[in-house]
Design brief:
251 residues; alpha/beta; Rossmann fold; SIR2/SIRT2 'Small Domain'; 2 domains; six-stranded parallel sheet; three-stranded antiparallel sheet; 10 helices; 9 strands
Length: 251
């Protein structure tokens, strides 16, 4: 497929030494991962988000919350990274090969960027594949998941394990957020891909980059509040646009 891309963007990306990328649910949707709302179907349709994804919900009914996330983990296990994921791996390789810095910031919790092979990934909302103790905060191994929910095996703890994701009402991981802000403020090009540009604080990152003088590139099937501010707004699927873009800078 030959997608017309701005020559100025191709040239800028071909020379850039600091690139930051923010990905959202739209990238995962192209792999068949349902969004949070879309996953509230079947047995889960009767529940509100606050029944399934808050600390209070876990305290009140830990089995229901654990089972909901286990069901979602099973869904994610059945899908694969799409061409957009793999194109970002190639983009990272090109940038780092010239001694540059590539920072991938994601709002997605499915781990597909890891499975595709991206290296410098910072997950703002956690990772559904990881589990941690709700009491001591220690990350647990996947083999320690007997029970619904299982208990922490750390001596003297015994707390309940939970998915290592950011629930409604919780703060984002400070290290990931700090790195994301630093990348936005220092990059030459910032990509906003498959995100609604509405969820804070991630929605502020592209604007930080713009204010710091970076080129702002949006890739999304539909316009967002960020579209009028972008230097390049590419409307379409990331799995089609990104491979074309990477192919052109590789020539």
């Amino acid at each position: 497929m030959n997608i017309p891309l701005p020559e100025a963007l191709i040239q800028a990306l071909g020379q850039a030494r600091a690139v930051a990328v923010l990905t959202g649910a739209g990238v995962s949707a192209e792999s068949g991962v349902p969004t949070f709302r879309e996953a509230q179907t079947g047995l889960w349709a009767e529940y509100r988000p606050e029944d399934l994804a808050t600390p209070e919900a876990f305290h009140q009914n830990p089995q229901r919350v654990w089972d909901w996330y286990q069901w979602r983990r099973d869904l994610v296990a059945k899908v694969s990274p799409n061409p957009g994921h793999y194109a970002l791996v190639e983009m990272e390789s090109h940038i780092t090969a010239r001694g540059g810095i590539f920072t991938l910031i994601t709002q997605n919790v499915d781990g597909l960027h890891h499975r595709a092979g991206s290296q410098n990934i910072h997950e703002l909302h956690g990772n559904i594949q990881r589990i941690q103790c709700a009491q001591c905060g220690i990350e647990a191994q996947s083999g320690h998941t007997h029970g619904s929910p299982p208990c922490c095996l750390r001596p003297g703890c015994g707390g309940l394990l939970r998915p290592d994701v950011v629930w409604f009402g919780e703060s984002l991981p400070q290290r990931a957020l700090h790195i994301a802000i630093e990348a936005a403020n220092t990059c030459e090009i910032f990509f906003s891909i498959g995100t609604s540009a509405l969820v804070q604080p991630a929605a502020s990152l592209p604007l930080m980059a713009l204010e710091s003088g970076a080129l702002l590139v949006e890739i999304n099937p539909e316009p967002t509040p960020l579209t009028p501010r972008a230097d390049f707004a590419l409307q379409g699927a990331s799995g089609e646009i990104l491979p074309e873009l990477v192919e052109k800078i590789a020539r």
